[in-house]
Amino acid sequence: MISYASRFISTSLLASCIFLCCNNLLSAQDSLTHRQAAGMPWKQSFEDIAESISSRSEKTIDYTGLLEELERLEQNPVKINSGDINEINRLFLLSEFQKHSLIEYIKKNGALLSFAEFSFIYGFDNISIELIRPFVSLEIPEKTGKLRIQHPLKTGKHQLFIRGQKLLEKREGFMTVSDSALLENPNSRYLGSAWKIYTRYSYSYRKKLLLGFTAEKDAGEEFFKGNNQKGFDFYSGFVQVNNVGKIKRIIVGDYEPRFGQGLNLWSGFSFGKSTETLLIEKRQSGLRHYSSTNENRFFRGVATTIAIRDLDVTAFFSSKKIDANSGEIDSLEQDESLITTFLESGIHGTRSQIQDKDALSETIYGTNLSYTRNRFHGGFTLLSFNYSPAIAKGEYPYELYDFNGNSGTRFGTDYKYSFKKASLFGEVSYFPGRGWAVIQGGLFPLADQLSVSTLYRYYSPGFVPFYSNAFSENSTIKNEKGFYLGIKILPFAGWEFTGYIDMFSFPWLKYRVSAPSRGMETFFQADYSVNNSFNMYWRLQYENKEEDLPASYETGNLADRKRIKARYHLTYKLSASFELRNRVEWSGFRHSKIKSEGFLIYQDILYRPRSPNLPDISFRYAMFDTDSYDSRIYAYENDVLYAFSIPPYYGKGIRTYLLLHSSPTEHLDIWLRISGTVFSDRQAIGSGLNKIDGNHISEIKLQSRFRF
Length: 708
Known about the structure:
The structure is a single chain. The termini are far apart. Residues about 5-40 and about 330-335 have low confidence and may be disordered. The protein has ten helices and 33 strands. The chain has a domain at about 30-145. The chain is mainly β and about 700 residues long. The strands form five sheets. It has a 24-stranded antiparallel beta barrel.
């Protein structure tokens, strides 16, 4: 019997040969890379990054903030000919060196007249130029004058989203049960309906004034009754004013601070290891309003940044309640309630989930000083926090260095320095009595066809990672040492090679790792494209980590846990409206005597009509067969705007979805998404309250956006 690996190799090689032969029939055009050929480079990059990061995390990651920033940039392009660093800073895809190199070029040569001029600016290659093209305007900005109240009321932009989604099959938690049975076991059923409802409103005026709110009800939560008499389970809102005198930004409400390289303070989404092998440096964005739906990982209060020449001074204060589990600890005087676990699901559909809601009071305040001049940036961040009740660390050996108590202070410095085409960056953070965290990286364009990135990090086992979000192999910023080397090569026309190697170790124990351990990960991808209608890539990824032997009761009995993935992906545009995407992927897993493998193959059909009266269509048909969850395969799926679907494909079955997007008027957008999976290896899906009797699961999602 032919193995999955053999099937993958033979299928991908056959497809490669066929399309390379067909390549001779394609009209000759300027060669483009995979990113450029996608038509919208930033959207393809976003899909790759989101898929790559999600495959590393067991948590649900919210990419709303990143996608919102990209869409806002596309709708309000950066006017680079202004020469204003505050305006150019909005283009966070650029490095600090690229920003200052651009400003120096404009000062010396005047306004850019075409995108072709970017190739004469130090630090810009064809790939970076194509990546930023949708977000850049060459027009000369007009003076906006003072902010007047009558102008916002007349010329501001409004957006209102309304979304509803539901699994069509009935889950165990929504089955009818008698009152007596529910009284005996109050957590045996969800209290609310199976619908998930989301609404969001935003208003903006000339980048000066922004405000908005977000509200969400998860499936199983009550709505305008019971514990949610005021409607939704979660509400969030903000008011943001920019560039008023020396006040660079002020936010009242919910927000996210992002400074340095993420060690001292970085709330919200953050890049890590991904297919963009050079994208390892965080681009500091300072204060940003919050409009996502994670109910715990944000700041609520007031924050402001004041500009004093080359120095930005930021002060922030936040006070809110977050979800947590509490336990009773015996004391000589009284029973003391302590927090034992932070919760991040944000779902409050059962009695016990409702009890955990807002169980922990969190107060955070601090400051950041940011100095930028020419090619140098330096920063200092101080963060103090207080929790009530106190936090108790666990009793397992790997939890020895976990934080316990209710208050603390963390501080540190960060820097960036650019010279010629290269740049260095780093950050140091210290928590008194607990430990250090250090990160040091560099980006080095060695030639027009060769660029290298490096990064070293050390996070002590006792470091307290609250609201840290730096480059890491671990899920938290602690107990890790590592060195990363990334590379990008443009060897000849039509080809792009990217890769990285990351070697890491963990000085202390971890969950399911009862001794200090080490590991490594390698990644290689080859992109080939001949014109703007045809591109494909091959990818190989290998990871090896030490982990406790399965069912072993001996401490320190570790064995290598190996995972390897191979992928072939093809994108082919039949016309300006029709696009086909094909993928074949194989995954293998081995840990001691446990072996698992599997494959995924799918066909995407995308239709983008030129007529505004016809809807955009995205359709996928996928077949998958994996031996277990260990050999699962992740694949990004198109979804309604600001919703994300990157499910793990595992087991044996077929998955398909259909997404329709229509804009019947310039003020209205409508999305409809229907997805479904049929398994051939089971008669029940899920467990507990989410169990479905049967071998199929399907979902419907409807969203509308009003713009006025």
